[in-house]
Amino acid sequence: MIPIPADNRILYFARNRAQFGFLSHFHPSPIVLDGETWPTVEHFYQAQKSSDPEYRAAIREAIHPGRAKSLAAQPMAPRRISRHSWFKAQGRLPRQDWHEVKLDIMRRADRAKFEQNPDLGALLRDTGDALLVEDSPTEPFWGIGPDGNGPNWAGRVLMEVRGRLRG
Known about the structure:
This protein is mainly alpha-helical. It contains nine helices and four strands, in the order βαββαααααααβα. The protein has helices at 17-20, 41-47, 53-61, 65-71, 79-82, 86-90, 98-116, 118-125, 153-166, and strands at residues 9-11, 31-33, 36-38, 131-133. The strands form two sheets. The chain has a two-stranded parallel sheet. Helix 2 (41-47) runs antiparallel to helix 3 (53-61), helix 3 (53-61) runs antiparallel to helix 4 and helix 7 crosses helix 8 (118-125). The radius of gyration is 16 Å and the shape is globular.
């Protein structure tokens, strides 16, 4: 059992990455959803931005989840973010309802990760009632962002999944 930090907060992006990196969407943990296998939650999540088979194949084949994320970048984003965007290169746009559906897509992917990989599910349950926080200084939606006040949706979804695993 991994010891929980004294403040009962697991900051798995930075502070506690060594012990709790398995909570990351980038953690190598294959999942099968809709009859397709994905190397990580991040790969699956990013692939849902389009139903185009070529796009989905490019995401699945990305060597690293960070590459999948960069391929999925919004084409109108600043160049430093969009320079590897599949959408930009193809002159296409991601699905229009992305902001409405992305949270449920992540919920589904995280549930699959921890239900289909029982060792990881056990580790998630072992976090007890600790607050799970994606302490990313650059992620203002999924994490806490640069000001530390982001909604931490990644951590909140993980805590939802942990509750489901406990029954």
